[in-house]
Design brief:
5-stranded mixed β-sheet; globular
């Protein structure tokens, strides 16, 4: 197995030959002297540690995504391109969001400022921020305790108003155009710790069979907490974020298919308008930084009673498809000798209401993974209408767990009868 993690940081190729699989991206940055990213909460709530990575949106276009570096194991960054706050200014020139933060007096103590800069950096290259609520959503994962949010919002408005649409003749726009498709397969081992990132579902299932003690990891928005807060160690991490079959989101005339490793941001982009209740749920599901990494598959398999995606999917009569290995037909080599049966992927599909068995317990069998979430599309008969609404009770609107979360779907005929 190979040792070493390679990625691009602020335009420079980096190789880290000997790092623990539990070393976070934030810890690495600070060890390298890039101390602009701060540790505030170490649990993805304050945004002081924000950095940007290049990802793909729901249409496959390269985009910048702000993420919480405090929750992200460095090994997950293998093959990626990262921009820390130190890389936002180029050739001695401040980025427009930095210039406007200065002009609008958007910083006092400065501890939160680097995180805000990175969140606004992502927003600067988005083409879908059209109103104040969308702007608030862009920075809702960043806390400020002294400046107040108005000058920061003013800085964002001024910076966004001064850009072309889309921004052109810009170093970062050019970087997007040249960006890699996405993270590929990777392996790393150090001091008895192993990291695997397969590219295909069969390889993922084979890795699980080979290392039954291995822990699957997607966006690390929950597993990262076990590492940073509970100081847990996992001998083997198996990433699902490069598995092609789990990264697809597509639709037919009758249903949507959401891969288990599709991020919540991608789901919001692709399906939020067609399913307003889903869009409303995602609007208050953590912060932008969390949704840029978190997956709906991960939210479901944790089977947490505060998992906000479950009520919406239950109300929409969603199904899940679970994948596992089974022995396939014998392979006959060219010399005609009998071969060993090779493994193939088997699937079983069930209503999501049967997926949850108890607190933190699902119908997943050992060796199975959640491959796809299937959401039926509403095809009304003449005169039929559907009302579907999401409700969340929490102490605050953003960045809070649900006291009660619920979703209700009601179909009405032409006479208004349920």
């Amino acid at each position: 197995m190979l040792a070493g993690i390679e990625f691009v940081l602020n335009g420079q190729s980096v190789r880290v030959p000997d790092c623990s699989t539990h070393l976070t991206l934030l810890e690495y940055l600070q060890r390298k002297g890039l101390t602009g990213s701060k540790e505030g909460c170490a649990e993805g709530d304050c945004g002081a540690c924000s950095v940007a990575i290049i990802e793909r949106d729901s249409r496959g276009r390269p985009v910048y995504r702000a993420i919480n570096s405090c929750l992200t194991p460095l090994c997950l960054m293998a093959g990626r391109e990262i921009v820390s706050v130190e890389g936002v200014a180029r050739r001695g020139m401040l980025h427009p969001v930095q210039q406007q933060m200065v002009a609008c007096h958007g910083s006092q103590c400065g501890y939160c400022t680097p995180g805000f800069i990175v969140s606004l950096f992502e927003g600067y290259y988005r083409d879908d921020i059209q109103n104040n609520d969308q702007l608030d959503d862009q920075i809702c994962g960043n806390l400020c305790r002294c400046t107040g949010y108005r000058p920061i919002r003013d800085a964002a408005i001024a910076a966004f108003a001064g850009r072309s649409s889309p921004p052109t003749s810009d170093f970062f726009t050019s970087a997007l155009a040249k960006a890699r498709v996405g993270p590929g397969a990777a392996e790393h081992e150090f001091n008895g710790q192993r990291f695997f990132r397969p590219a295909f579902l069969l390889e993922l299932l084979e890795a699980q069979e080979r290392f039954p003690e291995g822990r699957l990891i997607a966006g690390a928005t929950e597993l990262g907490l076990h590492i940073t807060k509970q100081f847990k160690k996992f001998p083997t991490l198996i990433s699902v974020e490069a598995v092609r079959e789990l990264k697809q989101i597509k639709s037919t005339d009758s249903e949507w298919h959401i891969g288990g490793a599709v991020t919540l941001t991608e789901i919001e982009e692709a399906m939020g308008k067609e399913f307003p209740a889903l869009g409303d749920m995602l609007r208050v599901f953590g912060s932008r930084q969390i949704r840029n990494r978190a997956t709906m598959g991960g939210n479901l398999v944790t089977a947490s009673p505060i998992g906000d995606s479950a009520p919406v999917l239950l109300a929409l009569d969603a199904d899940v498809a679970l994948a596992s290995l089974e022995s396939g037909p014998d392979v006959v080599p060219g010399n005609g000798a009998p071969g060993k049966g090779r493994s193939v992927v088997a699937e079983r599909r069930m209503p999501i209401e049967q997926f949850f068995l108890a607190y933190r317990k699902t119908a997943l069998l050992p060796g199975e993974v959640l491959k796809t979430i299937i959401v039926p599309r509403f095809t009304p008969q003449p005169g039929m209408t559907r009302k579907c609404e999401w409700h969340k009770v929490s102490r605050r609107r953003e960045m809070d767990i649900s006291i009660v979360a619920a979703c209700f779907t009601v179909d009405l005929d032409a006479q208004g009868a349920i």
